[in-house]
Task: inverse folding
C-alpha cells in the first residue's frame, strides 16, 4: 500500500519485549532493551523501499522505527535504525496493538552495559 497518496495512518501498536544478555567478568547480566510497550504511531512510507516509517512522541530511539512490509525484500537501511517486522502476514490497515511484531534489527549502539546501567 502506498501511503504517500493518503493521510498518514495513526495506529496503536505494541512494541515487543527484547531481552539481551552479556557476560561481565564471570557473571551473565540480563537487561531489557525494551519491555512490552503500547504506543501510538503515525505510519508513512519510508524513504527506504520495502519499509514503513513509524513516528511517535516517545523519546529516542523509539520515536522513529522502521517496519518491514510483509513480503518485502530486505533493503539496506542505516545501521543505527530500529527495525520491526511482522510475525505473520498482516496488511498495514489491520495493524493494531494485538498484531504480533518482532525486532529485526537493534544495533549494538543501543545496547550498552556501562557500570551505571547495571543494577541488582
Result:
Amino acid at each position: 500500500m502506498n501511503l504517500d497518496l493518503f493521510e498518514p495512518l495513526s495506529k496503536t501498536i505494541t512494541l515487543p519485549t527484547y531481552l539481551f544478555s552479556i557476560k561481565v567478568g564471570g557473571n551473565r547480566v540480563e537487561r531489557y532493551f525494551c519491555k512490552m510497550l503500547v504506543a501510538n504511531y503515525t505510519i508513512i512510507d519510508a524513504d527506504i523501499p520495502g519499509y514503513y516509517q513509524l513516528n511517535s512522541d516517545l523519546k529516542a530511539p523509539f520515536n522513529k522505527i522502521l517496519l518491514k512490509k510483509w513480503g518485502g525484500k530486505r533493503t539496506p537501511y542505516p545501521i543505527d535504525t530500529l527495525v520491526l517486522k511482522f510475525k505473520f502476514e498482516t496488511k498495514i490497515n489491520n495493524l493494531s496493538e494485538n498484531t504480533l511484531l518482532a525486532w529485526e534489527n537493534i544495533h549494538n549502539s543501543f545496547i550498552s552495559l556501562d557500570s551505571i546501567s547495571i543494577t541488582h
About this structure: Confidence is low (pLDDT under 50) at residues 115-120.
